[in-house]
Amino acid sequence: MHYFIHIVTDTERIPDPDGEAFVDLDAARVEASQSARDLMALELMAGRPVPFGWQVQIADPNGAVVLTIPFAGLVFGTGEASRTFAPVTGPAVMERAKAIYAKARRTQHEINDGLHELRSQVGTLAQLTAALRSR
Questions:
Q1: Predicted TM-score (pTM) above 0.70
Q2: What total of structural domains would you count in the chain?
Q3: In this structure, are 63 and 114 located in the same domain?
């Protein structure tokens, strides 16, 4: 069956223009839930709060929304999404989590290095300013 996975934020609805073929609604639900988790992770990595008020909608080819999954339900384990899904585990999930963690650590180190360099440059600028003022 062909389904479309739309994202509903606090301010807009982002439609899926192409959709995708899924074996059934449960397969679409798994994909939609993972997409929502990925979006939440991206928001966190960007330094923004988890968008608990967002939703993911699954629509049929006629545009009718057949399932809505609140992001908060995926995090807190409330609602239909948590009752119908087993926890997502396995080697692929663990590898992906490790890769995300490693990327976050690299980014943190890059930020720290950049801040150290910035502090150094500000110190140099302060010294140059003081030297110019003493003339």
A1: no
A2: 2
A3: no
